[in-house]
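Listing S7. Sequence submitted for prediction.
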Amino acid sequence: MKSRTLIPLFLLALTGLFPTAGNAANTAVQPVPRDEAWLKRHEGFVNQAKAGGIDVLFLGDSITDGWRNRGKALWDAHFAPLKAANFGIGGDRTQHVLWRMQNGELNGISPKVVVLMIGTNNTGFERDRVTPRNTTDEIVEGVTAIVQGLRTAFPSTKVLLLAVFPRGEKTSPARAQVAAVNEGIARLHDGQAVHYLDIGAKFLYPDGTLPTDIMPDLLHPNEVGYAIWAAAIKEPLAKLLK
């Protein structure tokens, strides 16, 4: 992996770009990079930002990243004409998005709207199925740090903050944690700069079941899921772009 200088969060806070973390032990607010392949994707986004011309920025993890494949036809039809850019990377947690934000992905652009969804990879357990990732409060802190960083970097930009999508077939600890995270980040809505939108119910049957014909792995949308997503944010996004 290439040698890189990681700027501590507290130094960024002194410059006013990012807020200080309330809990130094909270990994969700401690910006970190990932592996070499991830860094190459990040560098591609940095170069894309330098080129400018981005009015709508989608920021997130694999669910956002999926607009490039399963959602591509819908992206080309609905979002590409809006001068939208997709800065989603599969597997990202809040700490990875924070690192990307403070290492060049926000430079050279001033989007009218940022569409943000992040946090599902902070929930649950690590691959050992024993070690918890982050608590609900920690994840809310991480999302809050991202929103505050965006507001500081882009004072005139509006943030469309999406609730984390439901995961798992039925009610479960994972689904409950996502719901609790959404309850926490909903408080970031101010109706001016930050607009919270929960479209999760649109993916569910009336009894709360998440169908596999919308999310085959009960986490990532397929083409049908991306069509639901596109339809759900089309009007809210248009209003924010006025």
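Caption to Listing S7: primary sequence and predicted structure tokens for the chain studied. The chain has one domain: 9-241. The chain has a mean pLDDT of 92.
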